[in-house]
Amino acid sequence: MRILLINTNRKVDFLAAPPLGICYVAGAAEEAGHEVKVLDLCFAGAKIRRILRSTIASFDPQVVGLSVRNIDNVNMLHPVEYLHEIEEIRELVGRSSTAPVVVGGSGAGLMPERVFTRLQADYIVVSDGEVSFVRLLSAIERGESPKGIPGVGLTVDGRFHLTPPELYDFRGKTPDLGRWVDTRPYQQIGSSYNIQTKRGCRQQCIYCTYNQSLEGSTLRLRSPLEVVDEIEEALDKYRPETFEFVDSVFNDPLEHSIEILEEIIRRPWRANFTAMGVHPRNLDDAYLDLMWRAGFRSFMVTPESASEKMLRSYRKGFTARHVVKAAEAINKTAFATWWFFMIGGPGEDNETLQESLDFALRYLQKNGGPATHVAHYFVGVRLYPGTRLWDMALKQGFIDEQCDPLKNLWYVSEDLDLDRAVEQMTRAASICPEIYLGFDERILVFSKAAAIFFKMFGFPKPYWKYFTPVNRFGLWSGLRFMYRPPNISGMIRDSLRRQGYQGRLIQQPAVW
Fold first, then answer.
1. Exposed end of the chain (fewer CB within 10 Å): N or C?
2. Residues 6 or more apart from 304 whose CB is under 8 A from it?
3. Cβ(220)–Cβ(226) below 8 Å
C-alpha cells in the first residue's frame, strides 16, 4: 500500500526538532513492503495547503498517518496550543483524500481517546509505532479488524476501544532520519540531527508521562556499537553540524552512556554532540571530561529545583547537593548548559523558590569563568492524566473530573505568595543575565532572523547559549523586560480560574 506519513509539528525556532519517531515508523512500514512517503510540514509556512494538496494528489495515499509531537508548549506565562492547527491539517487531508487517517506520536500517546476524538481519526497508535502501525496496515490491507492489535485504538460499537500497548525490543532499529526528512532547514535554524539510544525512563517524577503513557518504566537499551554506527553512517551521508541525544535522560544508566562516549572516542572521525536531558547525579569531573573528549560542547540539565524539599516533592531521585556539585564541576569546563526549573509544585513556597534562584545567582553566573549557563524558570506545573500530580490536583481542587486535559491545566502551590514570587524572579533576573523566565519564550519568534545573523558572523552553536549575552545587553540598555507581561500574577490567577480552580490563590490574592 501507499502510506503517507505527515509531520504536523510546525514549531519553528532554535528548538525545532526533526521528527525522529516518524522515521522509525517509515522505515518499518517500508521494510514490510509498503511504499512510504514522509511529508514534513515544519517549514511549510503559508504554502501548507498547496503542499498538502499536491502531495496527496500525486502520491494518492491509501493510508495517511498524522504524527502529533506535542499538544501545547507547556508554558503557563506564554501558552501556545498546537492541536488547533493540527485539526486544520486533518481537515485538509479529509478534503483531499478518502484514505483512512491514523494518528500517532508522543502527543497522541498522552491522551489517546481525546486526541483520537478531537482529530476525528479512524485509528490511533500509541507507544512503539514501528510494530503496531505495521500490524495495523496489514489488517487494513486484508480488510480485517485491528481491534486486538496492541497499542491500536479505534471506534468499536460506537465507543472508543484501545488495546493496551506492548513495549518491544528497541535494538536493531535505525531510523535513517536524513533519508526521510531534509534536515538542512533544522540545522540552519540551529537544531541538530537526533539520535535515540534507548526507550523507557525509570525515574519516578510525579508530573511526568514518559514512564507511563509514552515509553514505559523499563529501560530498553540499544547497543552502544549500534548507536555509534548510526552516527557514523549519518555523518558520512548527511554531514550534520551537530548530533543531539534525545533520550529523556541521556546518562541513565550511567554505564550505558559511558560505553557510548568511549565508543565515539575510539572512532577515527570527530563530531559535535549535545543532549536534551542530563541527570545532575554523576556529572563529575571525570564524566564531563569524557563528554568533552567525545565531542560534546553543550547539553541541557533538568533538575527542576535546587531546593532539597522540592526535589523530594518531585521525586527527582537526587539531592540538592548533587545539583550543586554538578554546577561546580561544569564551571571548570567550557560547556554551554541550559538548566530547567519548575516553580510551583506541591510544597513550593517563597523560601524554596528563593533557594532555586540563589542557586543561579551563586553557581550559574559566568563571572569570568569558561562555562556558559542559561537558567530557565517556568511557573506552574502542567497536569497530565495518569500522573501522581494529576491525582493530587484532583484532591486539592485545581481540577475536577470534567476538565479537558487537552487544555492547559496547571498546578501552582497554594503555599506561594504569587505577587512576592513574581517580584523574587524579576529581581533575580534583573541582576543575573543567565536567568531566563517563562514569558521570555516570546522572543523565540525571532529565531529565524537570529539564526541568519549568527550564521553570517560565524557564531558557533548552540544558538540558545546567546540568550545570556542578549539578556546582558538588555539589562545594560534597559530593554531586558520589554516583553514582560504587565501583571504576571494576574495571568497565573486567570489561568487557574479558567480551569475551575476556586482556592486560596485566587480567593485571597497576596499583596507584597
1. C
2. 205, 310, 311, 314, 316, 340, 341, 342, 345
3. no
CA separation for the pair 96, 219 (Å, rounded): 41
Kindly list the structural domains of the chain, giving each domain's residue range(s) and its CATH number in brackets, ordered by start.
Answer: 2-126+129-162 (3.40.50.280), 189-498 (3.80.30.20)
Determine whether 335 is exposed, middle or buried from the number of CB atoms within 10 Å of its CB (0-12, 13-18, 19+): buried
* Assigned C-alpha cell, 491: 495571568
Q: Pairing state of beta strands 435-437 and 273-275?
A: unpaired
Q: What is the pLDDT of residues 4-20, one digit of tens each?
A: 999 999 988 888 889 99
Would you say 331 and 369 are in contact if contact means Cβ atoms under 8 Å apart?
A: yes
467 to 130, 283, 299, 444, 447: CA distances (angstroms)? 38, 24, 15, 10, 11
- Percent of the chain residues past pLDDT 90, beyond the cut: 80
Which pTM was predicted?
0.94
* 170 φ/ψ sector (left φ>0, alpha ψ -120 to 50, else beta): alpha
Does 365 score more than 80 pLDDT?
A: yes
Nearest to 229 by CA among 171, 286, 287: 171
Question: What's the CA gap between 133 and 153, in Å, rounded?
Answer: 11
What pLDDT is attached to residue 508?
52
Query: Residue length, the chain?
Result: 512
Q: Where are the beta strands (DSSP E) in 47-138?
A: 63-67, 101-104, 123-125
Distance (Å, whole) CA 139 – CA 136: 5
H or E element, residue 186:
helix 184-189
Query: At 213, is the pLDDT very low, low, confident or very high (cuts 50, 70, 90)?
Result: low
One-letter amino acid of 25: V
Residue 441 C-alpha cell reads as 519564550
Whole-angstrom Cα distance, residue 318 to residue 303?
9
Give which of 393, 304, 387, 407 is closest to 72, Cα–Cα: 407
CB distance 103 to 153 below 8 Å: no
HEC string of 31-69 equals HCCCEEEEEECCCCHHHHHHHHHHHHHHHCCCEEEEECC
Of 275, 221, 266, whose CA–CA distance to 243 is shortest? 275
Contacts of residue 321, defined as CB under 8 A and 6 or more positions apart, other chains included, come to none
Tell me the C-alpha distance between 449 and 446, whole Å: 6
